[in-house]
Amino acid sequence: MFTDRLYESARPIWEAYLDHPFVKGIGDGTLDLDKFQFFMRQDYLYLIDYCRVFALGSVKAKSLDTMTMFSELLHSTLSEEMELHRNYAERIGISREELEETEPSATLLAYTSYMLNKANQGSEIEVAACVLACTWSYNVIGLHLAEQNQGEKHEFYGDWIEMYASDEFSELASSLKTLINELAGGLPEREKAHLEEIFIHTSKLEYMFWEMAWKQKMWVEEDSVLNT
């Protein structure tokens, strides 16, 4: 399977997710709430551009089945996941107005700009490659943390773990993996290498997102002229 190749190429990065203090803090319930609040605000902005990538996938789809899949992903993210995100944020002290008024961090802008650029330039398979690392890795993280059996009872983080370890989210990750395996079949090596590059780059950006949330960094140097 092509996704096996993708995973092996990004394995060190993905293993670093599970060792990251932010992820570990969710798992054992020790993560400071202010760090999680920062993450939730930035993640909300990420989901907005994530929806735009799904919309591009529907436009670029060559079959009705693929168009339907991307449109369903767009609908579920826009109408269901983002509403759950808003409700969840409210539980931890973030109003909808605060979410809407959040300023994007440098890491967020780098991530979403990269995805949108590659999705705009490419075909349906580039779109799939752009979103795969996020969906798949969140499922891997959720399942890993659920297996640790530490944070599922936490007042705030337990629901987050349950969401990304759920059968529904596992099916979503599986459907994206199936799609990219089908689309990659028969592609020349040059194009497969290009998709692998996208996957590795988005995997690195995923790690940077965890690091950004842990340090609550809007820019590289909080006290620099960049914040004036």
UniProtKB/TrEMBL annotation:
Residues 9-215 form the Thiaminase-2/PQQC domain. It catalyses: 4-amino-5-aminomethyl-2-methylpyrimidine + H2O = 4-amino-5-hydroxymethyl-2-methylpyrimidine + NH4(+); thiamine + H2O = 5-(2-hydroxyethyl)-4-methylthiazole + 4-amino-5-hydroxymethyl-2-methylpyrimidine + H(+). GO terms for molecular function: thiaminase activity. GO terms for biological process: thiamine biosynthetic process; thiamine diphosphate biosynthetic process. Pathway: Cofactor biosynthesis; thiamine diphosphate biosynthesis. Coiled coil: none annotated. The keyword Hydrolase applies. NCBIfam families: salvage_TenA. Homotetramer. Belongs to the TenA family. This is Aminopyrimidine aminohydrolase. The gene is tenA.
